[in-house]
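Bug #77: duplicate submission created two jobs. Keeping one. Sequence:
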Amino acid sequence: MTEDLSPAERYAAARIRAAVEATALSPFRAMYEFDLDPFQIEACQALEAGRGVLVAAPTGSGKTIVGEFAVHLALEQGRKCFYTTPIKALSNQKYTDLAKRYGADKVGLLTGDNSVNADAPVVVMTTEVLRNMLYAGSPALLGLGYVVMDEVHYLSDRFRGAVWEEVIIHLPESVTLVSLSATVSNAEEFGDWLDTVRGDTAVIVSEHRPVPLWQHVMAGRRMYDLFEEESDHGGRGTGRREVNPDLVRLARMENQRSYNPRDRRRGKMVREADRERERRQRSRIWTPGRPEVIDRLDAEGLLPAITFIFSRAGCEAAVQQCMYAGLRLNDDGARLRVREIVEERTSSIPTEDLHVLGYYEWLEGLERGIAAHHAGMLPTFKEVVEELFVRGLVKAVFATETLALGINMPARSVVLEKLVKWNGEQHADITPGEYTQLTGRAGRRGIDVEGHAVVLWQRAMDPAALAGLAGTRTYPLRSSFRPSYNMAVNLTQQFGRHRSRELLETSFAQFQADRSVVGISRQVQKNEAGLDGYREGMTCHLGDFEEYARLRRDLKDRENDLAKQGAAQRRTAAAVSLEKLKPGDVIHVPTGKFAGLALVLDPGIPAGRTNGHRGFEQHDGPRPLVLTAERQVKRLASIDFPVPVEPLERMRIPKSFNARSPQSRRDLASALRTKAGHIVPERHRKSRSAAAEDREIARLRAELRAHPCHGCAEREDHARWAERYHRLQRDTLQLERRIEGRTNTIARTFDRIVALLTELDYLRGDEVTEHGRRLARLYGELDLLASECLREGVWEGLSPAELAACVSALVYEARQSDDAVAPKVPAGRAKTALGEMIRIWGRLDALEEDFKINQTEGVGQREPDLGFAWAAYQWASDKSLDEVLREAEMPAGDFVRWSKQVIDVLGQIAAAAPAEGGTVSRNARKAVDALLRGVVAYSSVG
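Kept job's structure:
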């Protein structure tokens, strides 16, 4: 081919080759056994040219190559590179990869509980660690040239997302930022913001999957393709995506009824034949069991597979079911290799803890090639599962959705049991973004020709809806940025209030809010043009019809207000009458399903309870438990009593009465009918309408009749135009309020936080007080509460174990709230201190209400949760793991995670508390040492 070129062309080609070889990218590409994709080359070239980059690409596409090129550039230029990740497990994994490539002497690790070679030129860390370094003005930032933010789309996370924006805003201008994101639909918008705050940023978006993804539905004994063969099977092409007609027929067949009892024309023989045919058809449709699914995938060569089950207990149960079914996916050689690796990786775990941790059952599953993976597992166990899966020694993993985040654990197939998951508040359908993230694990680059996503058939499944889920690429990045107390004092300390306010207005949250205002402003302009037309339509030659329309609205509003007041008064009167009821009262239930004679068994007066926020009293009114004349025992509600109720008679309820016994109910109901069946209840007389005697209504009616427009022949036509004018004007005012509310929202929240901190003497203008400097060292959701506890000496004199118990309340949050059972807490000084913490929180909560700082907007202090206090106290008191876990009723993984978070905050408290003149700083360090033992201390690096 070169021989066909002219000498000039050969010279030009040689110059291009020489120029390419002279770049840093050329030797970097040679480090990999495969050639880089076009999007990777484009991003690396932009990076070498000195530009920041945002790379948005599907899971498994290799976008981390760009981050590794930033590491390569930093080392070549003699500068530092920080590689940040959202979770510790991902930091550990990336540290291992980079240390293997560049040598352990050049790579360090910093997470909340690990510090390895922290002064190395390349340091892998969690994003929070970098944020804390920026606020503290750490000397480690000197010489920093590149920061890689892996999984940057995490800034949408409503709990931790703000940290990503804080880092992006506060990084020195000299630092080049590499942002790696999953495929998001508004990457250009995010890139525009990065361009604004970080300077020249190249946006590289790739929607190409390096390994094509095929979508399937498994129903009964068959696995159906989701899309027809000629369509674009889950790729990113432009082919038409038609749903497989076999699946559509299957769904229709399941929904059809074989027999209609109203069809009298059919004979018995015909109906039986129909039923038999239906049974045969339905025998093809069922949801396969977990062992059956793995067996089928194994038979079709689709292992290794990850099955996503949105429940920890479900993952563990799935492993047990496969073992009971006799599944064995490993041969003898693989089993021996598994045992060697497991024993080597768990050698540091004391033998007495192995049984408590379920080690032997876990090992048996691993030897068979089957494992669970979820947040409740011990971190060491999870890492072993990940390693064995990557090595091909575990072939079936049952995991919760947390596995979909970042961990390098691709599979040939991904199975989704259901398309519904618990989101913390309710069971909700998974979003297209979540579906893409989960199925993105299918297809191992360089190993598999194609990946497979399998959804199990469920009753009432809609194949068209599933196809829409699989085909939708809408996953917008939404900022969750909100100022916090710690952020406010750190910013004020560094930049002063005015400059801090300006900095916050550069956040992505404000950038998105300002952009959304543009569309609303256009709508306001359209509405104003419409108002002009409506105003013309309601013009009356007799007078000012707008004024007349206002009188009509005022009259209508007044009548509605009086009607509501009357209804409220009737409800109040009814509630008061219900509160007077006593067991044994015979009443007449006026309306509802159980209207008629009834005997009060229990008045059902609620005690009223506080829901933990703003002291709001949750009071639904009395709900009497009654026995009806028809022998039913029911709990009635206030809706059954629209009018007051009076006892008609009194009856004695036998002590032997049992509401669950049909005979008991029958006997008492019979006595009720005998006692009061003949009594006719008085009918409730309606009171005179308040509107008839209201002076305001009389005045408005008189003004209406006297108005010139009242006599207009076209009055009702004008009124219709006036009503449209009023509705559109109301909508326009709401839009204008939305514009006002979205402009400078972050800065206004910051102003309120600063006002509260000034009230508490943390700030005095631009000056940060001693209390403020202490708060600046405390990071966490309850930063202000921790600072106030230090300020008031709440933790002085506590032992290390008691201090650990108290600090646990600052970090722990129960997965499900349980108001019925009070958590167990240590007695004595710890119990008193925890009570003081709740009292201080109540004071801060009331203060936040005064300053309009709203927890629902992600700002403010939630109530401390005492649910981990006893476990922290026991562990810090040197109790055995078996005893602690048994009493805490908590999985080992959760226990370790919460313990490490307590250790992290104890470290902050040790640094923030006065070193002299008090016991807190010293005991916080002792508490760290007491907690950092056994399972909590196992190193997860290496």
